[in-house]
Write a structure and sequence with these properties.
single chain; 336 residues; alpha+beta; Phosphatase 2c, domain 1; 2 domains; five-stranded antiparallel sheet; 10 strands; globular
Length: 336
């Protein structure tokens, strides 16, 4: 298969798992992969029923997909509309009002098309950097686009989960679409429910997943989200797709000694966060301290250098941001 993929789910601290995930290759064209995350809305009866109905409606449509019979965008819109009709129909049959969000990615050679409705998100990470994400169908997203909220404020806003469009119900869903038309080796696309993205700035996600394989990246994000939820976490679902790097031609030294890949760990996560933060605010002046951080071989050595780093942040960004910086570094080191 052309793309690597992995997924993970967690019930969180809810009584029922109302998220559903689907990842499947095309039955005839194995280099084409569909990834779906559906999040049944807890504020409506039948959230789990809604999310499962989304999956049940989308899967048979994808099995019939053919690149020669229409654009990927039109097919994805058709999948969401089929899901909407299915959820609305099932709700009537059970005398309920089920609703769901949904995000889909259709990965083909050279491009990845996506569509979504609600606040389940798609992210693109490239070269260990955050590139883009889908825009939620929510009031806080509108305020963000108007410059009235920051990304950090969106994550903690009390009305974050209030949506103006969803799958199911009497109104047709609003469907947003997009495409990545220049997929490159190591590009990673992440789909997730709000139970996961609520705990991560996008740039932190890029640091955590960029040097991990997809399975361990899913596990790390789920683990951190569960830790940060502190006993009040929502259902969590995540799917990741990645175009593998092209294999390099081994040279003599590579053949003899191999390559020394960095091993994922909480210590490495904390090191990467501190180094990136200091370089962002200090530029080349951070080279000395970041070099020491990068060479720290144990948590104890890292912790001995953290007060100095915090003082530097305080002198440039203020006491409040310095404390946030310190807590995030400690959290990455301690959270498992």
């Amino acid at each position: 298969m052309l793309y690597e993929f992995a997924s993970a789910e967690n019930i969180g601290d809810r009584k029922e798992q109302q998220d559903r995930v689907l990842v499947m290759s095309h039955p005839v064209l194995p280099d084409i992969v569909l990834a779906v995350v559906a999040d049944g809305m807890g504020g409506h009866t039948g959230g789990a029923l809604a999310a499962q109905s989304v999956i049940d409606a989308i899967e048979p449509v994808f099995r019939e997909y053919s690149p020669a019979t229409g654009s990927a965008e039109d097919w994805l819109k058709g999948m969401i509309l089929a899901a909407h009709d299915r959820v609305a129909s099932v709700g009537k049959g059970y005398n309920r009002d089920p609703r769901s969000t949904c995000v889909l990615a259709l990965a083909q050679p050279g491009r990845i098309d996506w569509a979504h409705c609600g606040d389940s998100r798609l992210y693109l990470f490239r070269d260990n950097e955050y590139v883009l994400r889908s825009e939620d169908h929510s009031l806080v997203e509108v305020l963000l686009q108007q410059g009235k909220l920051t990304e950090a404020e969106v994550l903690v806003h009390p009305d974050r989960s209030k949506l103006f469009s969803s799958i199911g119900g009497p109104e047709p869903p609003q469907v947003a679409t997009g495409a990545i038309t220049d997929v490159r080796p190591r590009d990673t696309v992440l789909l997730c429910s709000d139970g996961l993205w609520a705990y991560f700035p996008a740039r932190e996600m890029s640091d955590l997943i960029g040097y991990r394989d997809l399975t361990s990246a899913c596990e790390r994000l789920i683990g951190l989200a569960r830790h940060r939820a502190r006993g009040s976490g929502d259902n969590l679902s995540i799917v990741m797709l990645r175009l593998p790097a092209r294999p390099a031609k081994p040279g003599l030294l590579g053949t003899l000694f191999g390559s020394k890949a960095v091993q994922p760990s909480p210590l490495e996560d904390a090191r990467r966060f501190v180094v990136k933060y200091l370089r962002a605010i200090m530029g080349p002046a951070a080279d000395d301290i970041t070099g020491q951080i990068e060479s720290s071989k144990s948590a104890q050595e890292f912790l001995s250098q953290l007060p100095r780093c915090t003082k530097m942040v305080e002198s440039l960004a203020g006491e409040d941001k310095a404390e946030i910086f310190r807590q995030r570094a400690l959290g990455l080191l301690e959270e498992t």
